Amino acid sequence: MAVRLPRPHRFDVGAALAGLLGGLLLWGVGLGTRPADDPIVLLDGRWPVLLPLAVTAGCEALRRVRPRTALLVGVGALTADTLTRGNLVTVVMFTDLVYAAVVYGPPATARRIPWITGLLTVAATVVPVAVWRVPEALLAGVVTGLVALMPAATGWIVRNHRETAEAARLRAEQTALLAEMDRTQAVVAERARMARELHDMVANHLSAIAIHSTAALSLDDPETSRQALGVIRENSVDGLAEMRRLIGILRDTGGDPEPAPAPTLDGLGALVAGARANGLDVTLDAPAVRVPAPVGLAAYRIVQESLTNALKHAAPGPVAVALAQRDGVLDVRVTSPYGRRDDPRAPGSGAGLVGMRERAALLGGSFAAGPDGARWTVRAALPLTEGDLA
To answer: CB under 8 Å, gap of 24 or more: what pairs does 213-218 form?
Structure first.
């Protein structure tokens, strides 16, 4: 299987062609970096200069896709260039190869090149001075620093800035993603809360309306029909008031009065009285207790939904509602007669038990519902966490 080489970047190809043409121009006018009689020039003549120039130009085209390979080959080309009369463009393109190897190379290469070029600069400064003992020997170190160390240091600075900017961009994206996840979760949680509130507020009244309207239609008794219509009207008015309260909470009221507060345990008496008016034989055992507002609301809604289910599904008989506070937990228990019916007295959606379980779970409590002998028992244990007491 053939290995597909990466295509050079368009800018790098242009830079390589520009460097090659510039080097050919200097070569054409006979301008070199060293005189012909320099002792270091071992390959005299004009033609040997072109080979290092062409090789370095080829490496320049690979500076981004093969930075380490381009630098290693460039080192060889620069070494060969020092044995000729030299070309300034070859040296300039080599400095760009050093810079590109630091900026585009692997992290390990980017860390090592500045250290290596720094050591070479020190060696190029100390050794000539120690050997020749003339001030002009310092120029070797200066040239090495300009050709190797300065491009490496510049590349390191640019790479650090790019990595810092990339890290900041990634952090911003992660922050935006987390914020979007939080917003989505908050919307889902709020929609679930609204669904529970709407179900618990309306289901009780609509169930009573459905049951009594069925009775009014099935019994040819004016007095019974009048009583059923009275119950229907009362539940319609109460349900409408509950709906208005929820709409008032959802709507931006501006300067309007605050919406009615959420129900608490103090409203259990009225709730039980309404259940009795709907035909349930309900007893309430709820001593006065002070609990946090969320716990009070959850307990109220659980009792309300349990009475609604008893109205729709329970067999004839007494329904018992009991609340007790012990060991930092509010225990809510509702029992009703359990028996088979051919059809429920009013249709149900199945969301009631789910909503009660969710309310208990949100407070870190437990919930259970099911038959217990001849009784259907709903029980919730709600921890009394710190908070405003209702």
So the answer is: 214/345
For 223-235, what is each residue's pLDDT tens digit? Answer: 766 766 776 767 6
More confident residue, 151 or 241: 151
- Amino acid (1-letter code) at residue 52: P
Helices (H), 35-106: 50-61, 67-82, 88-104
Maximal C-alpha separation, the chain: 132
Cα–Cα distance for residue pair 319/341, rounded to 1 Å: 17
17 and 163 belong to one structural domain: yes
Give the helix/strand (H/E) hosting 48.
none
Count CB-CB contacts under 10 A for residue 195: 14
Distance of CA 15 to the CA centre of its chain: 42
Spatial distance between the Cα atoms of 82 and 87, rounded to a whole number of angstroms: 9
Cα gap 219→29, rounded to integer Å: 119
> Where in the sequence is the domain holding 89, given as residue range(s)?
10-174
pLDDT, residue 251, reads 62
Average pLDDT (226-248) is 70
Confidence of residue 388 (pLDDT cuts 50, 70, 90): very low
To the nearest 10°, report the CA torsion of 94, 99, 103, 108: 80
pLDDT at 98 over 90: yes
Say which CATH number the domain at 385 has: 3.30.565.10
Integer CA distances (angstroms), 110 to 62, 153, 277, 319, 332, in order: 17, 10, 83, 79, 68
Does 159 lie in the same domain as 15?
Answer: yes
Cα radius of gyration rounded to whole Å, the chain: 43
pTM over cut 0.85: no
Contact (CB, 8 A) for 350 and 300: no
**Better-predicted residue by pLDDT, 5 or 48:** 48
Last-in-domain residue among 137, 159, 174: 174
pLDDT band at 310; cut points 50, 70, 90: confident
Tally of CA atoms within 13 A in the half-sphere of 268 that contains its CB: 25
113 neighbors 101 (Cβ within 8 angstroms): yes
